[in-house]
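> forwarded from #structure-qc
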């Protein structure tokens, strides 16, 4: 029996292959007649008309020599085929195909050397160990089961809020570790100096101090004034430098983590693009997990698939309605949107004036009853919370008249509301700075005064969340359960978990934490506790008081917007700190930079005592002469990233076109195969009919 040598044709991609917008001829089937009839070949035929068919094939494969070398069965010296080392469970094939692949791998291993076999077995073992470690670490994530329940009942949009909240908890825990390592730990071990008094609760201290941040808390490690220059007083290793290094490390690390999450999410959204559409047949026929045995898990999986299909149908129906708009309808719609945006701007102006009035009123130092004094102290946080509670609902109603898709409505409300929250916080900070500068002689420590304002904002934000859940939402739910037919219950309606407003609360609280961490170093610890409590409060609110939204929205774009808004809050915190340190260098009369010391002269003294080379390098990096090469380097890096983005975009578009043309080829081949079978049946019938008389 003759042994036929198997011929393997491999597809080689050249650099020019990424320049075309349509898939070029693969030249693997040039020996067949049906190849010229494929839709993909017909689509790219005008481009190949400039060259001969064999020239195109040689250009695509790198010349006749490479084609001859491949056809002879010698593999090219390119990168190693990773599919041969891919775990079988990750391959998209049936069980029988995986068994065949496993047998082929065993036969291939028997033909290779000992060291190559040992290397591949080690690679597989390491991958298994890393996969098991990843599964173990993922099982340690808090609230994992709760997130699955919420996703099954309310969709991935509500789940994205709780994932975002968990991310902020982890971020603040990292901040707490940095605060301990740079600030609180050295102060604890080395002491605060000989003139510091022991911390005791007594005298004029009261419970109200924990709400106002005064008295006992004002002398505690919570605020800036506690950290004086103690026994750790070396020239380049002292409390002021460690304090500044800790705060800058927190801001820099937060910037890296938030930018990374934002860019990864944006890359995922950009790769999907507007041409992305969910494969409904895949969701219906292949979306089920056959390893599920628990009825509750099966119900959750049903909910996942149902919510995905609802989201897809919602987007498709809006696209059809948007495509049917006439020119007159579009003009009226854009005019309506302009009027509604003017209304939004007027509401924002009124809110900013209200914040200014409340801040000015709260600075009145006249004597009042303790309850009135407490309300006046909390008047700016109350006003900011009231404005941030009412106006986003008005923005939500306004966006419903602008005829956007539900996802776009959510994102529009998010943008308007985050501008409201950040601008209101910025106006409040500006008035606090100006009033503190004017009344500096009235305070022993101006930084503690500013830290108390941030402390009150953080505490009141959590109290507002707690009271809104248990004093408004839960009684409303009880009213609907006890008296569902009453007039009040019908007017209030069912409660829905409004994702934009809840996300804005998280961004606002984290921005307050970043702004106040320099003046209140333990604010990340307070934010961690309040965010952890907020998770359980919101969990109770969602699972007990709310019903699922009838209209779904895609959470991928909104999650990118979540982190982008968080990035804006971080920039605002950095700008506030830089503004304070640059314009008010001698403002401090307490804390690590007290007694006439500033950030600049402390760092200057340290740099002066460094070795000559290090001192020259640091002064050059801080000078204006370093600005030009830094700008040039940034331009080069930015240009390279833009070039890579364009190349990746062309490659992605080409791959999308290849997928479309491959599906067309499959349909064409199935049609040709069906036609061939029909002709064969007809031919067999004719032959059988001709042979019948001869047999008689």
């Amino acid at each position: 029996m003759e042994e036929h040598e198997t011929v393997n044709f491999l597809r080689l991609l050249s650099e020019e292959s990424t320049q075309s917008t349509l898939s070029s001829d693969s030249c693997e089937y040039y020996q067949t007649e049906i190849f010229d009839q494929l839709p993909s070949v017909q689509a790219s035929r005008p481009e190949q008309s400039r060259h001969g068919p064999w020239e195109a094939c040689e250009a695509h494969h790198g010349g006749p020599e490479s084609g001859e070398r491949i056809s002879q069965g010698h593999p090219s010296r390119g990168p190693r085929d990773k599919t041969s080392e891919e775990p079988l469970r990750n391959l998209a094939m049936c069980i029988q195909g995986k068994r065949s692949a496993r047998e082929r791998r065993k036969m291939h291993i028997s033909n290779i050397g000992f060291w190559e076999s040992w290397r591949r077995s080690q690679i597989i073992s390491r991958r298994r160990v890393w996969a098991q470690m990843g599964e173990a670490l993922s099982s340690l994530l808090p609230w994992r089961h709760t997130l699955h329940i919420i996703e099954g009942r309310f969709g991935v949009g509500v789940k994205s809020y709780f994932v975002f909240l968990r991310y902020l908890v982890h971020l603040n825990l990292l901040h707490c570790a940095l605060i301990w390592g740079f600030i609180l730990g050295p102060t604890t071990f080395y002491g605060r100096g000989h003139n510091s008094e022991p911390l005791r609760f007594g005298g004029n201290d009261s419970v109200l101090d924990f709400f106002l941040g005064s008295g006992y808390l004002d002398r505690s490690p919570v605020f800036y004034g506690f950290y004086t220059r103690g026994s750790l007083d070396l020239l380049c290793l002292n409390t002021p430098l460690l304090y500044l290094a800790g705060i800058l490390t927190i801001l820099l690390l937060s910037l890296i983590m938030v930018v990374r999450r934002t860019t990864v999410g944006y890359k995922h959204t950009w790769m999907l693009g507007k041409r992305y559409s969910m494969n409904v047949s895949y969701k219906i026929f292949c979306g089920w997990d056959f390893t599920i045995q628990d009825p509750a898990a099966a119900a959750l999986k049903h909910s996942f698939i149902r919510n995905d299909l609802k989201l897809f149908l919602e987007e498709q129906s809006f696209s059809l309605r948007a495509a049917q708009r006439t020119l007159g309808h579009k003009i009226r719609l854009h005019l309506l949107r302009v009027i509604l945006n003017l209304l939004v701007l007027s509401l924002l102006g009124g809110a900013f004036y209200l914040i200014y009035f409340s801040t000015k009123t709260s600075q009145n130092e006249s004597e009042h009853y303790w309850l009135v004094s407490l309300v006046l102290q909390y008047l700016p946080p109350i006003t900011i919370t009231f404005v941030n509670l009412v106006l986003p609902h008005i923005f939500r109603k306004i966006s419903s008249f602008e005829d956007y898709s539900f996802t776009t409505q959510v994102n529009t409300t998010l943008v308007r509301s985050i501008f409201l929250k950040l601008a209101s916080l910025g106006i409040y900070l500006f008035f606090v700075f100006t009033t503190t500068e004017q009344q500096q002689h009235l305070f022993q420590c101006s930084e503690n005064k500013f830290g108390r304002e941030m402390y009150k904002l953080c505490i009141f934000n959590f109290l507002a969340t707690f009271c809104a859940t248990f004093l408004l939402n839960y009684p409303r739910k009880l009213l609907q359960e006890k008296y569902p037919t009453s007039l009040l219950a019908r007017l209030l309606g069912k409660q829905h978990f409004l994702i934009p407003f809840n996300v804005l609360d998280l961004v606002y609280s984290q921005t307050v934490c970043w702004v106040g961490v320099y003046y209140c170093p333990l604010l990340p610890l307070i934010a961690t506790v309040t965010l952890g409590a907020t998770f359980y409060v919101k969990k109770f609110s969602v699972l007990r008081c709310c019903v699922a939204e009838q209209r779904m929205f895609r959470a991928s774009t909104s999650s990118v917007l979540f982190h982008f808004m968080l990035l804006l809050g971080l920039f605002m915190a950095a700008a506030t700190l830089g503004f304070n340190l640059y314009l008010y260098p001698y403002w401090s009369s307490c804390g690590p930079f007290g007694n006439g010391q500033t950030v600049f002269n402390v760092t200057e003294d340290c740099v002066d005592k460094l070795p000559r080379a290090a001192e020259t390098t640091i002064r050059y990096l801080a000078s204006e002469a370093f600005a030009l090469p830094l700008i040039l380097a940034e331009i080069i890096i930015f240009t390279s990233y833009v070039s890579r983005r364009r190349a990746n975009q062309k490659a992605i578009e080409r791959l999308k076109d290849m997928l479309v043309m491959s599906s067309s080829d499959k349909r064409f081949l199935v049609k040709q195969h069906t036609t061939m079978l029909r002709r064969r049946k007809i031919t067999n019938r004719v032959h059988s009919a001709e042979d019948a008389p001869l047999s008689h």
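QC bot note: Confidence is low (pLDDT under 50) at residues 1-32, 50-82. The radius of gyration is 34 Å.
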